[in-house]
Design a protein that fits this description.
Length: 999
């Protein structure tokens, strides 16, 4: 380099240094500094914590506001070019406690002095709409997300604005959209999560847009096709998580500049073949829609594709193996939860060197993934970070995983994997964060090397296998940072290792359904202070429920049911005052419910059933105002339910099998959300109250086995959602209310969330993806990553035996049981209109009249019991139309005539269904209905005189027979001394009457 060039560089550096010194001494502009102080005052408010603005303004004695936090200045001009004021109104403590949170208005004119401002973030400050105008000719990026705006701000001069983020506000209409239309240089518009129901028709005016995002709104109907097609520069279109239905909008196919098309979470259907024209696509996300048909192989033409997500649709056929070798740029692939069939060879992805994520979970169990056939021509050139092959009929561990050293996420759940869990799964993958081998057939003990610590692992799920032996004593030291541990439904033996108490970050432990015994280790409940969910159900654990020194202050869910815990309700529960769910059913717990139970103010589900807990409920129960599930069944509780108990949030109430007395509690009148009410097998008396009609959501009403009386009130017919009604084994009198037919009893019932179908659900594994990111697995956040649903179980007599109904079956079951009462009158013809009912039992009453012929319309009935009444007449022959009837009884009535033809279901009923009706005839009874033609029955007329003579002859013959028999007995005792002495002994010793024996 010549001397002139060196001299020029030296002069330039000297000039820059001089400028830096000059501007550094001058600091920022005085008007900008004053404006910043005004902004500080505007963002301040009374009672905020002293530390919230400790750095706002930085060194306030310094005039150089460019050194303040939240502020960035130009290096040369020292003018403010960036203000990062996001999340500065409220401190974290205030937000966490939800105190003083209220919307407020900011005067946008405070920003006028910042003439060179280019970037402004006011996100997450609870801003309300402002009538002042926001104006800046230099501003390029404006972030107003996470506020309380309900309309577009008033924009002034914004010639340079390129980025506008209005996500997470309340802008659901476009009354002020003309303000956005002024922004002709705008390239990015983000309107996510606002409640918007349509894209504004005039949006095509902003032809400079490159990114348009309406994610997570309420978009429905059609797109403004003519407007969107004008956006020739559009590169990203995100309308995911909306309500758009119907065919895929064909105008998209002509938008050749598109690089990212994100349509997940809608209800779009039809074929996606037209997308093959978008040669520049880099991200294609159509997950969670209703697309069907086969995956077109022409998608291989999208050679720039980096993300392909077609999960959770209705794609069928085989996965085209020719697709992936063409897509050399692929980094992320998800094809999970479709209806693929046949086989798919994983070797088809072996040449995708950039691949980092591959997810495939079979939806219909008809897809088989072959990991080794055809054989891989060479070792895979990729290094995966995430691999999901769930429910893919794998029968062996994929061998190529031995060379995958960068795995963070591995899910091989719901397959047919057998043998022992390979040790290399853990030793080779030191970065592994999530491992799920759930629902396979792994056997043998779990082998861990004490010197190999898996420090990155935070989610381990090897539940539903056949792993046996004891949990290694070093378990806690091998997984020191584990957050979620699920080894339920295995064959584990021995005691719970105390080393689990060394896992200080542990949040979830599920060791249920094993063969564990002994007590809960004290070190576990003392050391794991962050434990959120503990489930040890279905083992043979003993001792107190929780050790007295328990320190599980963050525990929300505790399930210890089906063990052998004994003693009284342990004081070890006292520190877990945030409990939301507690289940200790089916144990040996005794004593009474202690008064300190009222401390569990957040309790939503309390299940104490099938123990030996007794006494009265304490008054402190009245403090439990969040209860939605209460099950105290099959204990020894007595007395009445305290009138102060708050049942306003109750969904499922089980008090059966106790000794509760008194009337049906009036406090139930407030339980408008009640779905199940089971008060059976107690000692309740009185009537069914009229206010029963207020329980409008009730689906199950069980009052069996009490001392209830009077008539069945017509108000019960207002319970339009009832599916199961059991009033049996009481003393109800009067007639059957004909209005019962007005209750649908399951007719057109849809499966919803009324009865949870699974015992508990875990958060589905999730991951972030952008082709610029590192594809790391998301760690969970918040306390809702592991939720528990109580599985409702209903016991009801059907088909002559008690059955337990739960899950989806509850939506299908319907029945009425009025048996074992004192009901009179006829069976209402209207009951024949219960066309969806499965069980009808009115046996053991005093019903009269005939069997309604309308019963032939009970098309779904499976069990019909009319026995032990006073019914008369013939059995309607139309009943043979009941094709689902499997249990039928009219035994012990006064029915006459021939039995229905032995066709269809009636061909399976035995004579026990008809016994006790002497005037019935026909098979399967032995009595024939045919008479001999040669000897017809003779009717003999009797006169009045004949009847008197017959009566007189009967009386004389009876007297002669009586005297003769009595004399014979006296003569026999006189002659047989042995029997005479026996008789005297019975009279003296058993009856207590002295007998004179003579000499």
């Amino acid at each position: 380099m010549d001397s002139i060039s060196l001299w020029f560089i030296w002069a330039l550096l000297a000039s820059l240094t001089l400028n830096f010194e000059i501007y550094g001494s001058l600091g920022c502009m005085e008007e900008e500094r004053n404006a910043l102080l005004e902004l500080k005052e505007a963002f301040n408010y009374p009672n905020r914590s002293a530390s919230a603005f400790s750095s706002w303004g930085g060194e306030e004695n310094s005039d150089n506001c460019c050194m303040w936090d939240h502020v960035k200045c130009d290096f040369i001009t020292k003018r403010v070019i960036q203000l990062s004021l996001n999340s500065t109104k409220y401190d974290d403590e205030t937000i966490a406690n939800n105190r003083f949170l209220q919307g407020w208005r900011l005067n946008f004119s405070l920003f006028l002095p910042f003439q060179q401002l280019q970037n402004l973030s006011l996100a997450d400050n609870y801003l309300l709409d402002s009538e002042s105008v926001l104006s800046s000719s230099k501003l390029q990026n404006l972030d107003l997300s996470g506020n309380w705006l309900d309309q577009f701000p008033f924009f002034g001069t914004f010639n340079s604005l390129k980025f506008l983020n209005l996500a997470n506000n309340y802008i659901y209409n476009f009354s002020n959209f003309q303000e956005v239309m002024k922004l002709r240089a705008l390239e990015t518009l983000i309107m996510d999560n606002n409640g918007i129901d349509h894209i504004p028709p005039s949006i095509g005016v902003i032809t400079s847009l490159k990114v348009l995002s309406f994610n997570n709104n309420r978009l429905n109907g059609s797109f403004p096709e003519e407007e969107l097609i004008k956006m020739r520069a559009l590169e990203t279109l995100d309308i995911g998580s909306n309500e758009i239905a119907g065919r895929f909008p064909p105008f998209i196919w002509a938008m050749n500049s598109l690089k990212s098309l994100l349509f997940s979470g809608n209800r779009l259907n039809d074929s996606i073949r037209g997308l093959c024209r978008l040669r520049n696509l880099e991200q294609l996300d159509l997950s969670w829609n209703n697309f069907s048909g086969v995956i077109p192989s022409c998608l291989g033409n999208l050679t720039s594709l980096k993300l392909l997500d077609l999960s959770s649709n209705n794609f069928v056929g085989t996965i085209p193996s020719s697709l992936f070798p063409k897509l050399k740029s692929l980094e992320f692939v998800s094809l999970s939860d479709n209806s693929f069939e046949g086989s798919f060879s994983l070797s088809s992805i072996s040449s995708n060197s950039k691949l980092r994520v591959f997810k495939l979970r079979s939806h219909n169990n008809k897809l088989q993934v072959d990991t080794e056939n055809p054989p891989w021509t060479a070792s895979p050139v990729f290094q995966l970070k995430q691999l999901m092959l769930s429910n893919c009929k794998l029968n062996a561990m994929p061998r190529f995983l031995v060379g995958q050293y960068d795995l963070r996420f591995l899910d091989l759940s719901h397959n047919y994997l057998v043998g022992k869990i390979p040790t290399w799964v853990l030793t080779n993958n030191t970065n592994l964060q999530v491992l799920s081998l759930r629902n396979n057939s792994f056997t043998g003990p779990l082998i861990l090397h004490p010197d190999r610590k898996i420090v990155e692992m935070y989610w381990l799920d090897i539940s539903m296998n056949h792993i046996n032996g004891e949990l290694p004593s070093v378990f806690g030291s091998v997984f020191p940072n584990l957050l979620i541990l699920n080894m339920s439904v295995n064959a584990l033996q021995g005691r719970i290792p105390s080393s689990l108490g060394d896992m200080k970050r542990l949040r979830v432990v599920d060791l249920s359904s094993n063969n564990l015994y002994g007590e809960i280790p004290e070190h576990l409940v003392v050391g794991c202070e962050l434990l959120y969910f503990l489930k040890l159900s279905n083992n043979t654990l003993q001792g107190p429920l929780l050790p007295p020194k328990s320190n599980l202050t963050g525990l929300f869910y505790l399930y210890l049911d089906n063990n052998e815990f004994s003693g009284e309700l342990s004081t070890g529960l006292l520190n877990s005052t945030h409990l939301k769910g507690l289940d200790i059913s089916n144990n040996l717990v005794s004593g009474e419910v202690p008064n300190w139970f009222g401390r569990f103010l957040e309790l939503e589900s309390l299940i104490l059933s099938r123990n030996s807990i007794g006494g009265r409920l304490p008054e402190s129960f009245c403090r439990l105002q969040q209860l939605s599930v209460l099950d105290l069944s099959w204990n020894n509780f007595n007395g009445i339910i305290p009138s102060c108990v708050d049942l306003s949030s109750m969904n499922y109430l089980h008090l059966q099998g106790n000794k509760f007395t008194g009337l049906i509690p009036h406090i139930l009148n407030t339980s408008s959300s009640l779905i199940t009410l089971d008060l059976s097998n107690n000692r309740l008396s009185g009537e069914i109250p009229d206010w029963i009609s207020s329980l409008s959501r009730l689906r199950v009403l069980l009052l069996k086995g009490n001392n209830l009386e009077s008539s069945i009130p017509s108000q019960i017919c207002y319970l339009k959602n009832i599916d199961i009604l059991d009033l049996s084994f009481n003393s109800f009198s009067g007639s059957i209310p004909p209005c019962l037919y007005e209750i649908p009893f399951g007719r057109e019932r849809q499966i919803d969330d009324t009865f949870p179908t699974s015992e508990y659900t875990t958060l589905r594994y999730s991951s972030t993806y952008s082709y610029k990111s590192n594809l790391d697995v998301d760690r969970f956040s918040g306390d809702d990553f592991y939720t528990f649903d109580v599985r409702e179980v209903i016991a009801f007599m059907s088909k002559s035996r008690y059955e337990s109904y739960q899950g989806n079956v509850l939506y299908l079951m319907s029945g009425i049981d009025l048996s074992q009462n004192k009901l009179v009158g006829t069976i209402p013809n209207e009951l024949g209109h219960l066309t969806s009912i499965h069980t009808l039992n009115v046996s053991h009453n005093h019903l009269t009249g005939s069997i309604p012929t309308t019963f032939s319309s009970l098309s779904q009935v499976e069990s019909l019991d009319l026995s032990f009444n006073n019914l008369s007449g013939e059995i309607p022959p139309e009943l043979i139309q009941l094709n689902f009837l499997s249990v039928f009884s009219v035994a012990y009535n006064n029915l006459t005539g021939s039995l229905p033809d032995r066709k269809a279901q009636f061909g399976t009923f035995q004579k026990s269904s008809y016994e006790g009706n002497p005037l019935l005839c026909g098979p399967p009874l032995e009595k024939s209905c045919t008479r001999s033609r040669n000897f017809p029955p003779v009717s003999i007329p009797w006169s009045s005189a004949d009847k008197d003579s017959l009566r007189e002859a009967f009386l004389w013959s009876f007297m002669v027979f009586y005297v003769t028999a009595f004399s014979g007995v006296i003569f026999f005792l006189y002659c047989c001394a042995y029997y005479r002495d026996k008789l005297f002994y019975v009279i003296e010793e058993k009856i207590g009457i002295p007998v004179f024996r003579g000499s």
